[in-house]
Amino acid sequence: MSAEATVPEVKPNYLTADHGLKSWLLTLDHKRIGLLYLLGVSFFFLLGGIFAMLIRLELLTPAGDMVQPDTYNRLFTMHGVMMIFFFLIPAIPGILGNFLIPIQIGAKDLAFPKLNLLSWYLFMAGGLATFGAIVTGGLDTGWTFYTPYSSTFSTTAVIPVGLGIFVNGFSGILTGLNFMVTIHRMRAPGMTWFRLPLFVWSHYATSLIQVLGTPVLAITLVLLVLERAFHIGVFDPTRGGDPVLFQHLFWFYSHPAVYIMILPSMAVISELIAAFSRKRIFGYHFVAFSSIAIAVLGFLVWGHHLFVSSQSVYAGTVFSLLTMLVAIPSAVKVFNWSFTLYQGAVSLHTPMLYALGFIGLFMIGGLTGVFLGTLGFDVHVHDTYFVVAHFHYVMVGGTIMGYLGGLHFWWPKITGRMYSEFWSRMSALLVFVGFNLTFFPQFLLGYMGMPRRYHAYPEEWQVLNVLSTAGASVLALGFLLPVAYFFWSLKFGAVAGRNPWGARGLEWETDSPPPTLNFDQAPVVDHEAYNYADDAATPGMKPLSAH
Amino acid sequence: MSSLHVVSVKTYVAIFLALMVLTAITVAVAFVDLGPLNNIVMLGIAIAKATLVVLIFMHVRYSTRLIPLIAAGSFFWLLILFGITISDYLTRGWLGAGTPWGH
Fold first, then answer.
1. With CB atoms counted within 10 Å of each terminal CB, which end of chain A scores lower, N or C?
2. A-chain residues within 8 Å CB-CB of B80?
3. Of A252, A300, A312, the CB nearest to B94
4. Is residue A311 in a domain?
């Protein structure tokens, strides 16, 4: 008997199908590109996190005693630039969207695999160019690049960072385009629009924003670079231009960009709530269309960033009213998730803890958004820590909770291994507690009038700032813990099997990790999404040990 | 399939020449003072040129109906950007806004 005959045949998957650095750097497999994004995004998240910790350390004491004011300006700018453009925007679409969309619709890959690889290279090129600008002196304009400071007065690396973000923008545009074409053209037989998982609907809405909005940011940054380099005068009143025009153009993209961050997170949450309640999402159609409504309405509200920027009272009033409208589809989602939980067989595995955390934190973030959309209140707290707390509740409490929840949910699919349930629950707890401890005091500070972007503050605000810094440390621990047990799981984790959560969806019907072409046989879909009701024999979640 | 529609070289050349002629007219108009009409004429010519490029060079005219819909959608979004931004600029004089502190 030959040696080969005794070795059980191991089926190749997308990780083992090919080997070597070249097979990764030139891969056209959407799943491998998703993992490449995981590497890049994690690196930029680490950088952004280091800047955040340095900001919080400076604010531990009232005096500006740790860094110079100029350095502090660079710290909060680079924190914002790194986190927004290179972590929050690409994280979920780049990693989970790339990995899951083709599998969830029953396709072999995205419509344009080469374009997908190009997207990753553009993302890395933009990110590394920006990283290079940090190393060689940084940027101090704030992530918002407001003119005339950025165009005329700042002596820092406005042009290199602007170009880095410009290049990165094309990565987002191409990814959005790729997703849209894929969802339109590559659905498996029987996978109608209303059988799509809500993950796909929400990513479709995200893609719409990326394709329609990002070019405007690109144009705005080009105008800024031209203004700075050649003084063309678009934003310069002495030459007939207007600095506030920059804010209009910038926020036309950058407000919808908030929805580029939150919609993919909502995409994840819909999947988690359904899987861990063992129920079809309540009001599937409403949740699907609420994503599209958020994408469309998100384009009509940018002027609420300009309430105190000499925008006309008429425009301010209209923007204030339009801003209220976004609350409607957002509330539709939250209510429908809550109704899905009602009478569901709810189980509190780690991804579900993140999902429930998301709902709570997004509620606070969203409702304070309604406060801020109100003209009079915004004038009171504009540019204070109230605003900082609000958008961190949406971006960190929203996007990062969804990102981590999704990563924990699909980690067994991506790697084929389970992580420690105990430690992962601990990390979810640390993130939730650490997050609230960091950012809730900032609402109070902001309401009392502490302005953002200052490195010193009056002594009476120290207690709340110490709480915030302590919370940031807990939060950092909560983010580092998954790194440890995810790496641990790769070698020591239990083999996950196809469907460790007993969830519904095409991705759970293929191997973990999936084969290169995703399915052994092309799937044909003959049922709705989230068909948990069909599974009457096993109403509750099976314990993990049963798999 | 409609996306494989082949456009004759003659059409391309004709469109190219039309674009050149329209460019020449734009330049010529710049030397004539028509008052406010200057901007209207120039923007009109620019829109005509863009329409030719989108319909013929970018094959939108020969595509399935979804493509013109998406192209029109992107122009509609441009209209939102311009329209609402201009609504700010045109109304800054109302209610004394644009004159800080009511002076």
1. N
2. 299-300
3. A312
4. yes
Q: How far is CA A358 from CA A299, A353, A354, B20, in A?
A: 24, 9, 6, 57
Report how far residue A450's alpha carbon sits from residue A238's, in angstroms, rounded to the nearest whole number: 34
Q: Which residue in A311, A320, A325, A379 has the most chain B C-beta atoms within 10 A of its own C-beta, making it the best mutation to test that interface?
A: A311
Q: What is the CATH number of the domain that holds A217?
A: 1.20.210.10
Find chain A residues with C-beta within 8 A of B87's C-beta. Answer: 312, 314-315, 318
- The ipTM of this complex is 0.85
**Residue A541 — pLDDT band, cuts 50, 70, 90?**
very low
Q: What is the DSSP string of A477-494?
A: HHHHHHHHHHHHHHHHSP
Q: Does residue A148 have a cis peptide bond before it, meaning omega lies within 30 degrees of 0?
A: yes
The structural domain count of chain A equals 1
Minimal CA–CA distance to A180: which of B74, B79, B81?
B74
Facing residue for A315 by CB, picked from B77, B81, B87: B87
Residue A421: pLDDT band with limits 50, 70, 90 = very high
pLDDT digits (tens, 9 = 90+) for A437-496: 999 999 999 999 999 999 999 999 999 999 999 999 999 999 999 999 999 999 999 999
Tell me the Cα Rg of chain A.
23
A272-315 pLDDT, tens per residue? 999 999 999 999 999 999 999 999 999 999 999 999 998 998 99
Could you tell me if B81 lies within 8 Å of chain A, comparing CB atoms?
A: yes
Structural domain that includes position A198:
21-546
